[in-house]
Amino acid sequence: MARKKATGTDAAPKQGRLGQIRSAYTLTRKVDPLVGWVTLASLFVVFAVLLAVGFVIGHPVYLGLIGLMLGVLAATIMFGRRAEKAAFAQVEGQPGAAAAALNMLRRGWTVTPAVAVTRSQDLVHRAVGRPGVVLIAEGSPTRLGHLLAQEKKKVARFVPDVPIYDLQAGNEDGQVPLRKLNRHLMKLPRNLKNDQVSEVNRRLKAVGTMNLPIPKGPMPKNMRMPRGPRS
Asked: Based on the domain organization, do 80 and 17 belong to the same domain?
């Protein structure tokens, strides 16, 4: 009985992962019908090249195995990129698209979507990480400047010595395209240490309810907050 229970428990995560892959493939295929062929082609090309080299140097089995493993890796990377591209294509232009993209950020970031919203569906999202606070706006470029300025003032009251960056997500001049948004954030300078990031997150929990008192007290000891750019 114990074996059956253990087997069932182990099988559940495997079925879950397979289900996720299947769902990702189905969704991607709707936008990118060639995703399956391109993924398989990347596997077979890498495998065939290394196998051919193996025959030339007299080690077809050895290089064939290496080619198979590298082919699977290449196929995985190719599928991941096309799936990500398809996901962006599906949400691009919709309200909240930037928030969906920000949810793909790596560890070390805390994303709070829709910290500011207007009736015209202009949105500001907040991301906190090693660079400091990043405000990401999406909507009409003619209205976002004022909305960002208001949110920046609000955040600055709670974390006055923390670098605050702001940007607009979109395809207009001066905006960051959705597919490049996360890379843009990852390239920002690392101004804070991990415990400082935690402290910033703690303080910003009060933002949005401006009748609450502004958190008082110093940041973690022996750590000086750099004065970074405000735009």
From this structure: yes
